[in-house]
# Entry
Amino acid sequence: MSHAPIPRFTAVAPLRAEVSGWRRAGERVVLVPTMGALHAGHLALMARAKEVGQRVVASIFVNPTQFGPNEDFSRYPRDTATDLSLLAQAGVDAAYLPEVSGMYPEHFSTRIEVDGLTEGLCGAYRPGHFSGVATVVTKLLNQVQPDIALFGEKDFQQLLVIRRAVRDLDLPVEIQGVPTLREVDGLALSSRNRYLDADERARAPHLQAVLARIGEGLAAGGHAGPLLAEGRAALKAAGFDPVQYLEIRDAETLAPVERATRPVRVLAAAYLGRTRLIDNVPANPAGLA
Ligand code: AMP
# Structure
């Protein structure tokens, strides 16, 4: 089925005019920020956006400031034509594709730093990453002025960092998290999965399996120490090297925890060959839904 092309915006003013018209008409506007190379996980966010609001704006912006000097910014997959047609099929009302020069004009000098939450996990291995994310998301929220913005639990630390920045800065928007969409074998969908060769792709689901096993152990009253040691060994055996982190954290504060007496999250980042994969799963104390 062919779809009408999706309205596409590069500049802030015309997009804001469109959004403010919708809001004046009483329509709730939902923003879904992405870096493109869209997959079914992104489309699950678009589908949720259509459920929680009447108008959906998807942004596509590969944000240079959230990539480190040795990371994959230049080889990050970009396929705007396919992305736009997927967004049209998903019934998204507008695509926002800002340019780097518009987002970061000459003498750009302001950054959002979220302390504490950004110190461990990915923050420890990607210096400056969450500052880049918090800054660009704050800008996107100010540019688009949606009622609601959706983010995936796939990037769990990112979701908490954004929630905190929005609360601390009194940004007038509601942040909602969306559960991770997975392949049938458990692998979390990610734009970076396309970097995996056939052998790596076959090993990749071990990441989720190890996290799930730790989650079950915690729900059964297990302790972090032995569960994490066993999980680390299982990841190594599956070919993950290095395992940057495998941790159990409080689901709200990200404080390290020894047992699941409150809702917790089991999180990991590990390399398969050149590809860095991240994933996380929830674990609740026994008796808590
Ligand atoms: P990205 O394009 O990787 O920056 O992702 C854009 C948004 O999609 C972020 O909020 C991600 O957390 C979310 N996302 C990415 N992968 C998935 C997935 N497998 N399931 C749900 N949300 C996802």
